[in-house]
């Protein structure tokens, strides 16, 4: 099957205009961003402790309305720590996840091969979980995990009512609910709810620091104080105590100040741009309703042909369009647009012209 992963292609570093996510930075630009930090003169963190790490954790905990938060250098470390903690408190070693969740699709089945956990799939492919899926959930679970949004299902989000029904199920059956909220900020924008109201549904919550917030890397796990304290040994056991993580921490603090206030702007741009794409290329061009700043576009061209033309454009015009192209068969393919500051360099009509030309 055609995989079409282009992120990191050598031509990408030669481009100066990008379509999706935030603009990629050079080493020098990362250093310049770090130099803008208001806490640059603070003591450097060591092994997960230090004033800047504590500041970041406090800020995110406050934003999410949780008692405490814990910095992790990688989302897998944080989420696996949470799963191991919840399973240690349970007689069961089975988690419930969506069949297209990040844990199932993108982590080489680490929950099974490394953590020794089994998984029950809940939810249907290319759909968000709904009340029917919740009713089918077994009760012998160590944790329920819900990804907001489910990226591989087309950035799908459950209804707000279904999320509350899932929370009620977890309470009634004493099953911890973990929110894989890598893109929780965008999800909250769709629900028109404060971040803390969405986060309140989870007994534990993960957010990414490098996606919407544009940090160099890293993530946060948030919950009550007792949970966070018990999570620290699991983080250490999974190799999460970096000698120092200041580039991640300082760029995350920069993102809170500069990207977080723009979430609703990115959301509105996604709605506007996707509507224009549908008007020009037809309703099939946007296969799923757009609910957050990320969405799929489908065009009537073979994946390998689109890749060749995109790379040719990158070489001649220094424009980078796609990070990944997925073959959907029948002479069509899909790619993602995740609205970030890269789109600051584009007018919507300009992008339409580029896509139109690349199809010819």
TrEMBL record:
Taxonomic superkingdom: Bacteria
Cofactor(s) the protein requires to work: pyridoxal 5'-phosphate
Pfam families the UniProt entry points to: Beta_elim_lyase
Domain Aromatic amino acid beta-eliminating lyase/threonine aldolase stretches: 46-293
An example Gene Ontology CC term for this record: cytosol
GO biological process, one term: glycine biosynthetic process
Keyword Oxidoreductase: no
Record's keyword terms, sorted: Pyridoxal phosphate
GO molecular function, a single term: L-allo-threonine aldolase activity
Entry-linked PANTHER family: L-THREONINE ALDOLASE (PTHR48097:SF9), L-THREONINE ALDOLASE-RELATED (PTHR48097)
Protein family according to the UniProt entry: Belongs to the threonine aldolase family.
Assembly information from the UniProt record: Homotetramer.
Name assigned to this protein: Aromatic amino acid beta-eliminating lyase/threonine aldolase domain-containing protein
Species of the source: Thalassotalea euphylliae
């Amino acid at each position: 099957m055609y995989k079409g992963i282009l992120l990191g292609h050598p031509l990408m570093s030669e481009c100066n205009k990008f379509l999706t996510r935030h603009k990629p930075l050079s080493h020098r630009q990362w250093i310049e961003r770090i130099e803008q930090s208001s806490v640059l003169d603070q003591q450097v963190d060591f092994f997960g402790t230090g004033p800047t790490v504590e500041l970041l954790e406090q800020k995110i905990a406050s934003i999410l309305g949780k008692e405490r938060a814990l910095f992790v250098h990688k989302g897998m470390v944080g989420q696996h720590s949470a799963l191991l903690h919840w399973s240690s408190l349970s007689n069961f070693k089975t988690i419930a996840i969506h069949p297209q969740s990040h844990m199932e699709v993108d982590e080489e089945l680490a929950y099974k091969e490394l953590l020794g956990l089994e998984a029950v799939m809940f939810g249907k492919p290319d759909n968000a979980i709904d009340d029917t899926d919740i009713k089918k959930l077994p009760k012998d679970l160590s944790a329920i995990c819900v990804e907001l949004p489910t990226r591989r299902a087309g950035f799908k989000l459950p209804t707000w009512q279904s999320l509350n029904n899932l929370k009620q199920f977890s309470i009634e059956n004493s099953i911890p609910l973990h929110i894989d909220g890598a893109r929780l900020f965008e999800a909250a924008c769709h629900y028109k709810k404060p971040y803390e109201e969405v986060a309140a549904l989870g007994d534990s919550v993960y957010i990414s620091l490098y996606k919407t917030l544009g940090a160099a890397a890293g993530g946060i796990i948030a919950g009550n104080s007792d949970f966070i304290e018990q999570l620290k040994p699991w983080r250490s056991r999974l190799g999460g105590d970096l000698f120092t993580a200041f580039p991640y921490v300082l760029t995350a603090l920069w993102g809170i100040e500069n990207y977080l206030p723009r979430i609703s702007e990115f959301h509105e741009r996604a709605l506007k741009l996707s509507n224009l794409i549908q008007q020009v290329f037809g309703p099939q061009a946007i296969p799923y309703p757009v609910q957050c700043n990320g969405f799929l576009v489908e065009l009537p061209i073979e994946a390998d042909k689109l890749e060749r033309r995109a790379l040719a454009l990158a070489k001649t015009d220094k424009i980078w369009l796609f990070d990944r192209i997925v073959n959907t068969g029948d002479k069509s393919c899909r790619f993602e647009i995740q609205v970030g500051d890269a789109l600051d360099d584009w007018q919507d009509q300009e992008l339409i012209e580029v896509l139109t030309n690349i199809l010819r």
